[in-house]
Specification:
- The protein is mainly alpha-helical and 364 residues long.
- It has a domain of 134 residues: Peroxidase, domain 1.
- The strands form two sheets. It has a two-stranded antiparallel sheet.
- Strand 1 and strand 2 form a beta hairpin.
- The longest helix has 16 residues.
- It is globular.
- The structure holds protoporphyrin IX containing FE and 2-acetamido-2-deoxy-beta-D-glucopyranose (3 copies).
- Keywords: Calcium, Disulfide bond, Glycoprotein, Heme, Hydrogen peroxide, Iron, Metal-binding, Oxidoreductase, Peroxidase, Secreted, Signal.
- It catalyses: 2 a phenolic donor + H2O2 = 2 a phenolic radical donor + 2 H2O.
- Its cofactor is heme b; Ca(2+).
- One of its GO terms (molecular function) is heme binding.
């Protein structure tokens, strides 16, 4: 996609602005993959501006990713590699819990676009002058945690030069952020061995990353095309128990939303600043726990895509997780789903599009 066209789309994305637009569901149409709020008109919904609705993403299920070639303890020859990442992440999250949320989301946005290859960290792409993933509508002005990854990479280059990939640093960092934000309840081994990619294109982001206005069927299709199933959609969505969201994405006008929360959100979003952010979990905003599922059932989640989990096929698992807050069921299954997500389309040996980057923001 040409840079100019992308810039136009980014403007359209930010046109969400100010007082939350009055609109209750996407009426079945998809604007920029669900990253832009459709506008109600007589007789239905349209996309804003001259935007043409996105085609529905076809269900093209892939087999579950196996992560062949990855293994736990991959960096035996740099025995402190994972400890170095954990230290950098713990320090960053202690200072600012939102960084932990940022790192978990960064991993998701990396893995879904061209696999877990750190393509989301590249400031430009090999072989193209088009903008890279970080400038795509789901990512721009939104992703955070880049500085934490860079700090970990710098520490690793000092300890074991040219050894640890940025893709693995992101995987370890997401795991460590989960550990810290859950107060140690989510504790798991993350396999390593990923290589870094060299290609990164903003235009690919909205095809594969579900947005806040994406309907559940399309979200399931997007996950299925990465080999993830409906259960993974439910289990991984629990990450929305930490971090924040910008006002333009939230649907505080949903008629079923808890009225107290809806009023509070409208107040906080009144400034009209497109980038004002509110916490996702109004009860335990900085703890990675199963509160999200209780919030789904209490009509106290921010996105249409969250609220949609409270329906037929996904409801039973939401209920199980919501009821198990003192157990460990969601925590255990979230850990397994993060490992599975970390297996998506990995590059496990050096090649034309796979290397150990020297600096995470630039291909070698
Ligand atoms: C299922 C479909 C999903 C949709 C539609 C979705 C959508 C969103 C949106 C719109 C935001 C707010 C971004 C902003 O305001 O700039 C957000 C934030 C977040 N998402 Fe998701 N997401 C999904 C799945 C996931 C998954 C699978 C994970 C990780 C496992 C995840 C982790 C997060 C986190 C941690 C944040 C907060 C980030 C921060 O505070 O910096 N999301 N998501
Ligand atoms: C929000 O975005 C709209 C559309 O791009 C723009 O006209 C407006 O000035 C922005 N408002 C703020 C406060 O940034
Ligand atoms: C990408 O950015 C790097 C660092 O700024 C630069 O050296 C390289 O030439 C750029 N590549 C392209 C294709 O623009
Ligand atoms: C909405 O949330 C508030 C604050 O947590 C709570 O006191 C109230 O009972 C909730 N209302 C409904 C209808 O669930």
């Amino acid at each position: 996609m040409a840079a100019a066209k992308l810039a136009a789309l980014t403007v359209a994305l930010l046109a969400f602005a100010g007082p939350v637009a009055s609109q209750q569901d996407s009426g079945g149409i998809l604007c920029l993959g669900g990253w832009v709020r459709p506008i109600p008109v007589v007789g239905g919904m349209i996309c804003p501006g001259n935007m043409i609705p996105s085609p529905k993403i076809d269900p093209k299920p892939s087999p579950a990713p196996t992560g062949a070639g990855l293994r736990v303890g991959y960096y035996n020859s740099c025995p402190d590699a994972e400890g170095i990442v954990r230290k950098v992440v713990s320090d960053a999250v202690a200072k600012e819990p939102g960084m932990g949320a940022g790192l978990i989301r960064l991993f998701f946005h990396d893995c879904f676009v061209r696999g877990c290859d750190a393509s989301v960290l590249l400031v430009n792409s090999s072989g193209s002058s088009d903008p890279s993933e970080m400038f795509g509508p789901p990512n721009r002005d939104s992703l955070r945690g880049f500085g934490v990854i860079d700090a970990a990479k710098a520490a690793l280059e000092a300890a074991c030069p040219n050894a640890v990939s940025c893709a693995d640093i992101m995987a370890f960092a997401a795991r460590d952020a989960s550990f810290v934000l859950s107060n140690g309840r989510i504790n798991f081994a993350m396999p390593g061995g990923r290589h870094d990619g060299r290609v990164s294109l903003a235009s690919e982001t909205t095809d594969v990353l579900p947005g806040p206005f994406t309907d559940l069927q399309t979200i399931k299709n997007m996950f299925a095309s990465k080999g993830l199933d409906t259960k993974d959609v439910v289990t991984l969505s629990g990450a929305h128990t930490v971090g924040h969201a910008r006002c333009g994405f939230i649907s505080s006008d949903r008629p079923d939303m808890n009225a107290t929360l809806a009023r509070d959100l409208r107040n906080k979003c009144r400034s009209g600043n497109n980038n004002t952010a509110v916490v996702q979990d109004y009860k335990t905003p900085h703890i990675l726990d199963s509160q999200y599922y209780q919030n789904v059932n209490d009509n106290a989640v921010l996105f249409q895509s969250d609220a949609a989990l409270s329906s037929g096929e996904t409801q039973p698992l939401v209920d199980i997780y919501a009821a198990d807050s003192s157990g460990n069921r969601w925590e255990t299954e979230f850990a397994a789903a993060m490992v599975k997500m970390g297996n998506i389309e990995v590059k496990t040996s050096p090649g034309a599009d796979a290397e150990i980057r020297k600096k995470c923001s630039i291909y070698n």
